[in-house]
């Protein structure tokens, strides 16, 4: 898991912090952001470096978690997906 970089998008600050902490304690490297737009910006810098996305479905007034996942998956088809 050392090389697994997880992108976490969650608009509730305490939930975001909890997810980030839990994933880091499990051995993942984490980039945590509060909006889909921030996630896309970070992701676009190095799309190949991310292995997974954890997102809230409702991310405030911007894009939804579904839209975010669809965009990221279209850019990096290597992202892990559970259905």
Describe this structure in words.
- The chain is α/β, with parallel strands linked by helices and 83 residues long.
- The protein has one domain (5-75): 3-Layer(aba) Sandwich (Rossmann fold), CATH 3.40.50.2300.
- Helices cover 41% and strands 17% of the residues.
- It has three helices and three strands, in the order βαβαβα.
- The chain has helices at 13-25, 36-45, 65-75, and strands at residues 5-9, 29-33, 52-55.
- It has a three-stranded parallel sheet with strand order 2-1-3, with helices on both faces.
- β1, α1 (13-25) and β2 form a beta-alpha-beta unit.
- α2 runs parallel beside α3 (65-75).
- The longest helix has 13 residues, at 13-25.
Q: Measured on Cα atoms, how large is the radius of gyration?
A: 12 Å
Strand-residue proportion:
15-25%
Mean pLDDT: 88
CATH class call? Alpha Beta
Summarize the helix and strand pattern as letters. EHEHEH
| SSE-based structural type | alpha/beta
Which helices and strands, and how do they pair?
Blueprint (H helix, E strand, L loop, with lengths): L4 E5 L3 H13 L3 E5 L2 H10 L6 E4 L9 H11 L8
Parallel strand pairs: 1-2, 1-3
Helix pairs in contact: 2-3
Could you write a compact summary of the structure shown?
This protein has about 80 residues and is of the alpha/beta class.
